[in-house]
Write a structure and sequence with these properties.
359 residues, alpha/beta, 39% helix, binds pyridoxal-5'-phosphate
């Protein structure tokens, strides 16, 4: 018997998956360090009793989409929801990518943009960010003019560097996209941790979409719920390609209930942002190289030790961060997800001990 061979163009780049080690402090996958608010957990069972389990879910997810839309002052027809923002991105690529279509990414960035593009056969063009991980406006515009992509990915804040795309870049890209019918996808999985967002730029006559998720800000990586804010015409296209009833009743109910807890979520975001700034300042003092971040994580590097060694020393202290050392342009860099204040203290203390041991 001969088993079928996986298409050679759909393999994830090596080094993408994060090792799942059994440690005390897990700061490696950008999740929230807290469970969802208690009130949400208390009310969830009641919300579930209202589900008609023998029936298919509401195919349009109307209640959930309306509630999300209201939060942004948009119409429910400008929201598309799916099983995590990864499925949102996949649906976009099914609709607008594929053979004879081209996508542009600015690297280093979130590996799934490349992976999802390739799984549907989209040609990929990678443009390098500058030494500070910013996207140079002139370089980006030249790439768009030369390559004429169908899709442009901008991850902001960018995973894994934390870099926030500035307004000038987005305007320049949108101006070009407008003329060519190019789709600009801004991945804001960490958008709520940043001061600026592309959400306000959304208009029904502009080829711009912004994806967001319940996984990070909303403490619900286990739920699998993400969404897209987009022109209504694009949402219609996505509904044409996505599988019917893809978003189950449970997810719709839990997501809708979660939106009753915006204040609690805003408080958590504020605390994580202030912790991020505190931890970065401590690492600067200890002599590490750090990069400004608009997310719930940041990138850092030791000038005195390889990234692999530093990563292992932290694991020895039962602290797990993401080792990005082997990524192009991220030599010796590690990425730390901001945790609870106690976890962050433990992380800082471990690094201080490592630095002192070097002296
Ligand atoms: C985590 C992440 C996502 C995916 O999140 P889902 O859990 O699928 O919603 C999307 N984009 C970026 C940049 C991420 O880091």
């Amino acid at each position: 018997m001969v088993l079928p061979k996986l298409r050679s163009d759909v393999n994830l780049p090596s080094g993408y998956h994060s090792p799942q080690l059994d440690v005390a402090v897990r700061l490696n996958t950008n999740e929230s360090p807290w469970a969802p608010p208690e009130g949400f957990l208390e009310r969830l069972p009641d919300a579930l009793t209202k589900i008609e389990w023998n029936r298919y879910p509401d195919r349009a997810a109307s209640v959930l989409r309306s509630r999300i839309a209201t939060g942004y002052g948009l119409g429910h027809d400008q929201v598309f929801a799916a099983n995590g923002s990864n499925e949102v991105l996949q649906t976009l690529l099914l609709a607008y990518g594929g053979p004879r279509r081209k996508a542009l990414v600015f690297t280093p960035t979130y590996a799934l943009h490349t992976h999802i593009s390739q799984t549907v056969g989209t040609q990929l063009v990678s443009i390098a960010r500058d030494g500070n991980f910013e996207i140079d406006v002139d370089v980006a515009c030249r790439a768009v003019d030369d390559e004429q992509p169908d899709i442009i990915f901008v991850c902001s804040p960018n995973n894994p560097t934390g870099t926030v795309a500035d307004g000038a870049l987005l305007s320049a890209l949108l101006e070009r996209a407008d003329h060519a019918g190019t789709l600009v996808i801004v991945d804001e999985a960490y958008g709520q941790f940043a001061e600026t967002s592309a959400v306000d730029l959304i208009r029904d006559d502009r080829p711009l979409v912004v994806s967001r998720t319940f996984s990070k800000t909303w403490s619900m990586a286990g739920l699998r719920l993400g969404y897209l804010l987009a022109p209504a015409g694009i949402v219609e296209d996505l509904e044409r390609v996505v599988l019917p009833y893809h978003l189950d009743s449970f997810t719709q109910a839990a997501g809708t209930l979660a939106l009753d807890f915006r204040d609690e979520m805003a408080e958590r975001i504020a605390l994580l942002v202030s912790e991020r700034e505190r931890v970065i300042a401590e690492l600067d003092t200890l002599g590490f190289e750090t990069w400004e971040s608009g997310a719930n994580f940041f990138l850092f590097r030791s000038p005195a030790m390889s990234g692999d060694d530093l990563w292992q020393r932290l694991v020895d202290e039962s602290i797990l961060v993401r080792n990005c050392s082997s990524w192009d342009a991220l030599q010796n860099c590690l990425r730390m997800t901001v945790g609870t204040p106690a976890e962050n203290d433990r992380f800082i203390k471990a690094l201080a001990a490592i630095v002192n041991g070097l002296g």
